[in-house]
Structure formats: C-alpha cells, structure tokens
Amino acid sequence: MRALAATLAALAAALPTQLPAQSRDFSAERLVAPPTDSWPTNGGNLYNQRYSPLSEIDAGNVAQLKGVWRTRLRGSGAAPQYSGEAQPVVQDGVAYISTGANDVFALSIDSGEILWQYTANLPAELPSVCCGWNNRGVALSEDKVFMGRLDGKLVALDRKTGVPVWTIQAETLEENFSITPAPVYYDGLVITGFAGADRGTRSR
Fold first, then answer.
1. How far apart are CA 170 and CA 152, in angstroms?
2. pTM more than 0.90
3. Statement: 19-45+81-199 belongs to CATH 2.40.128.630
C-alpha cells in the first residue's frame, strides 16, 4: 500500500498545472465579434477576418516586442514530410495548437508549459496523403477541442484534459479523403471540409 501511495503521489506531482476556468460563452454573437480577450476561432472570429481592435501594440512600440518563452512540442511534426500550417487558438489563458502529425497541444499562455498533449499515432503510410502531411488548426467549443485528421477522422477532445470524448470516421480513407482544414464550431455544430484532390477525389 505504501508503494501504491508513493506512486500516486508521484503521478499527482507530475500532472500539469490546472487549467484556468473555461469560458462558457461561445454564442454566435461573441464568435462573430472582433476578438478582444482571446482568439477563439482559426480566423479570430466566424467571419475569418483575422482582425483585433486592440490598440496596445502600434507602430510606435512594435519594435519593442520580444520573445518571452519558447516551447518545443516534443518532436511532434518535426520529420521532413510534415508541414506546420496551423495557427493557435487562444481561450482562457490557454493556446491550443496542432501539428502536421495531427497531434494537439494545450499550452499555458503565461509560461509556455504543455498542459496536455493528444497524440494521433497516424500510420506511417496513408494512401490519401500525396505531397505533405499538414493540419491547419483546431476549433473550440465550451468544453471541447475539435480536430480533423489525415485519415478522415474527426476527433473531439476534452478541453481540460485532451482526452478524446468521441471520434468518428467522417469520411473514408479508402476513397482518398482526408481532413486538413481547421473545423468551425457554431451553435452546437462542428463543420469541416474534406480534402482529396491530390488523389483525384473531389473535395467538399
């Protein structure tokens, strides 16, 4: 029993810093407004404008910007076939970023600490992938992180832990479909596109 207690204590000490309280406001009104305290969608808002009305950084002080921390994502997506094409989405002090290996990381905005990691474990050979393994980002809801995978699966992860909540085979790998774009979350729905033109499959 003592050995078990010691093991549990060591595991608890190794757990990441607790995530901040999660925002429950993912209403349409908030998601279409220009972001001011987060970056909740791949394009900043549902209009994909990539615009923020904040004015703290301007032409007079932009030269003073400097790095605060740098985090290495444990070698994910570092091999030559992978492309880093995703932008982070940021909510409640946490940045969520995916790699070309379809792995997802939650990072503390304050420290860069990795709070959790989801590993896709894609097979070494994918018939649907032609010229580059990439992923263009994730979507957030009140309690989940959504990501499309190169094997045609759509995955929902728990925002607090990164543990998969559900996984569906959204399209068939055998017909050369893959998912590379960032999904969109809106009003309880997850919307995604499918790639496939590299192999002669019509995207949709």
1. 6
2. no
3. yes
